[in-house]
Amino acid sequence: MIRTAGSWLPAPLSTRLARLWLAALVVVRALRGVVVPRYRAMTLAAAVCVWLLIVLGGIVRVTGSGTGCGRSWPVCNGRWLPALEYHALIEWNHRLVGFLVGWLMLVTVLSTILFFRRPRRLLYAALLAGVTYVGQALLGAITVWLELDHKWVAAHMGNSMLLLAAIILLAVFARLAPAQTAQPVAQGSSRLWWLAVGTVGWTYLAMFTGSAVIGYEAELACPTWPHCSPQTWFPQTWQQFVSFGHRIAVGFSDVLMLALGVTIWRTRRHDQRLLRATHLLGTLYVSQVFLGAFTIWWERRHFSVARTSRSPR
Q1: Which of 237, 244, 259, 264 is 20 to 30 A distant from 278 in Cα terms?
Q2: Closest by Cα among 261, 158, 263 to 201
Q3: Three-state SS string across 228-246, please?
Q4: Which residues contact 47 (CB under 8 A, 6 or more apart)?
């Protein structure tokens, strides 16, 4: 018996613990030599892979493959390999990619905790990304196990947007040198900061309402624009309220983004990096609006064609 860390432990156990600790130090040292030179590339790869995983999740939804593996998770219909069936293959491949991205996320978050705790924004972004990724996996598993309805799509999508935002911020922060992260405070910076935070928060809410539209299957509840239907300007049913509420949220987000862009142009136009980010934001947002409008037009067109084909001649 020997005394270690203030308590008596058997000699074989203390020897094993010492060996494990030494092995952990060797692994961490070797990992540092591999990870540190490649940290920026790793965070970028994690951001791209998370985005692709979310796209695959969208494919699962639009193809109706969410229950392709039944109530089994992480296996597919009780098997590790799926049957050669359309929906099962789509859902299983989504899970497989999620598993592989999970390992990349684990390495990225652990590398940040071990080697990149300064500046603190790196650590906070990595921890948020790790927590939201685990939450995403748990939400998916709970939805499968309990056979929850599509209203859980809103929670799942909302969490995925937090995950994507966190991992993108981590990739961006990893590319900013410490000297670049501390910009001098200019006149009006406080107002610009709060306007940016408000725009981000409200835009996230607008995306969350878009997930609610999908969850309540209200995509075509308001088939006309800007009014809700040919008969009335305002919504009448619950699905119409969900769809029309999403339009109002997006409209207010438009106003906030326009105000943010104008404020940046007036007060920080000398910051070329911020100006390029503003241009990218505007391009992506306009693309999102047009994609949403095109989706509604496409679904209306197919709905009208299907109804016409079913009508008696």
Answers
A1: 244
A2: 158
A3: CCCCCCCCCCHHHHHHHHH
A4: 164, 167, 168, 170, 171
SS3 195: helix
> CB of 104 within 8 A of CB of 45?
yes
CA 228 to chain centre: 30
Q: Which two tokens stand for residue 159?
A: 């969490």
Amino acid 239: pLDDT: 84
Q: How many Cα atoms are found within 13 Å in the side-chain-facing hemisphere of 176?
A: 19
- What is the per-residue pLDDT for 30? 66
Q: What is the DSSP string of 245-294?
A: HHHHHHHHHHHHHHHHHHHHHHH-TT-HHHHHHHHHHHHHHHHHHHHHHH
Question: Token pair for residue 19?
Answer: 């060996």
Q: DSSP state, 218?
A: -
Q: Please state the domain extents for the chain.
A: 35-175, 187-307
- Comparing CA positions, the residue from 47, 158, 162 lying closest to residue 105 is 47
Q: What is the mean pLDDT of each run of 10 residues along the chain (313 residues)?
A: 49 68 68 75 92 87 78 79 84 88 91 85 91 87 69 75 90 72 53 88 85 76 75 81 87 88 85 84 81 68 46 46
